[in-house]
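Quick illustration, no need to memorize.
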Amino acid sequence: MLYYLSEVGKYLHEVFIDQFDWWVALGFVAQFMFTMRFVVQWIASEKAQRSVIPFAFWTFSLGGGSLLLVYALYKRDPVFIAGQALSIFIYLRNLQFALRERRANRAVT
C-alpha cells in the first residue's frame, strides 16, 4: 500500500510541479474562467428560481474557450482544438443574440 501511495505522490509531483510553466498557468486560468460560467449560471438560476443563462455565462464561455483554444494549439491536441474552435463560434453567436436582446429591451424601456 505504501508503494502505491509513493507512486501516486510521484505522479502528482510530476504533473503539478515538474511540468508547471506559463502554459500550464494559462490552462488553469482558462479552466477557471470556463468553470465560472457554470457558477454564474447557477447563481442566476437560484436567484430567479428557474433556469437562467445570464450574459456573463457567454462572456466566461468565450473567454475560457478562447484561452483553452490557445492552450490546445500550443499542446497540438487536434481533438481539443476542434472542440474549442467550434465552441467559440457558438459562444460568439449566443453573445450576439444576447446583445441584440439587450438592445431591444433598452429600446422598449
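Helices lie at 2-18, 22-48, 55-75, 78-108.
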